[in-house]
Structures are given as C-alpha cells and as structure tokens.
Amino acid sequence: MAGPVKVRITYCAECGYEPQTLDLAKTLMLEFGAELSSIELIPWDGGTFDVSVAGELVHSMRREGGFPEPATIKDAVRARLRS
Amino acid sequence: MTMDRPRFAQGLTFDAYKRQMTRNRERFEENERRVELRPDDVAAFQQLPRPLHVVVLAEDWCGDVIANLPVVGRLAQASGKLDIRVFLRDQNDDLMQRWLNQGTFKSIPVVVFYDDDFRELGHWIERPASVTDLRAKRRREIFAAHPEFGSPDAPVDQLPEDVRAQLQAELAKMRDETTPFANQEVIRELRELVTRVAA
Question: What is the pLDDT averaged over residues B192-197?
C-alpha cells in the first residue's frame, strides 16, 4: 500500500472560487478521512483552479477548463492510494 | 431582461455598494485614492450632452472590481454625469446573462451605459485587453529573471512554499507598478465608449 497522499488545491482567491474549493476539500475529507496526509489550500490568482494529488496535476482549469468533477479527483486519489 | 427605471432604482448607489462590502473595502478605497484623473478626461465626461445611467455588475471578492470600479466611481464623482447603480452579480443572474464575456464567462465588472429612456448605449467588461497584455508580458519577464520560479505554465503548487511567497510578492509588485497604466487605460476606454455612443 502506498504512503499517505497529499492533495493540493490551488484556487484563484480573486475569482470567488472559495465555495468550489471548500466543497472539494470537504468531499475529499469525508471520502478519505485519515487516508490523506493533508489537504492544502493555496490561494492564488489569475483564474487558477488546479488540483494535484501526490504531486501530480490531475485537474487544471486552464488545461481542462472549468471545475473538476469530484468523482475525477476521488478516482485519482484512490488510484494513488492503491499504487 | 429589460432595464427600466424601477429596476435601476433597485441597484446600490456607489457609496451604498461600498458600505455593504464585507471584504476588500480598504483596497477598494485605496485604489480610489490612487486614481489620477487628467483634466481632459474629466472634461470629456463633463461635456456629455446629458447624464447617463450606469449599471454596474460587481462582487467584492473580484480583483478586477476592486481595481476598476474605483476608476468608474471617481469619473462619476468628478464629472457629475454618471448616475451609477451597482447590482451584485450573484444575486442578479438575469442581468449577468445579458452581458456574458464572449457569451460564456461571468466576468465582472460589467459597466453598462443607458440614456434617460433606458436604451442601452454600450457596455464595458472586466479590464482593457492592453492591461491583460502588459501584465502577461511583465509576468513572463519576472519568470525569465527568476529561474527559481520555474516555468510560468507550471502549477504553482509545485514550488516550495518560500519560493511561492517570493513569486506572489513579485507579481503583487508588478501589479502595483502597472496600476497607473491600467487606470489610465480604463479611463481611455470608457471615455472612447461614452463619447462615441452618447454624443
């Protein structure tokens, strides 16, 4: 089994993305609990909404457009936990 | 959605908007103080044949609102020709849908000019393209001058926290340095718009 997995959510703090950031963080907290080593929220700018799982960028608003489906992020976390 | 006098009256005056702000009011008012109005710009607004009703869509969390709405407010104050009413974007989606940026994005601020019969004369959204371009260029220069910041296209969460803080400080400094240009570009675009449509 892999070690603890860290999730980072980088969000544009000038774009009103706090609700989506908190919703995603809460989803991950409830789904994975202590399986995650931490969830880091990074306030940024420029329309950013990036999600990294164990250092790998799994969603980028610039790359994919829009916000991620929670299921996509959960799948990425599960895959990392099982690897 | 039709804007008319009763709906317009539901909006917040510029001062009422500031009073209801729950964040960034200090930055907003500092930006108001920093706006430098050239006499010829003020005169161009003062010489409008009649006052204009101005609908603004805004939210207090938005950086472009905090940067650019103070410019509109100062122009209104100095010229006496712009009657502003601010509507909160997230409580007035029918208005927002009318002026989506590129038909898709809920970009703010939106500034819409109306005549006395509430016929729309023109609108302005978010920020001047020249400001976006200048800041993108300056951003590339910052990354070029600081190899420790990595690629400008890489996710910032990959940077060590102290380096990320340095990058944030450099970007804030750049935004501050480019503010006079940005303010003047907002004034230039609004002046060109209103003098074209309201003449």
Answer: 94
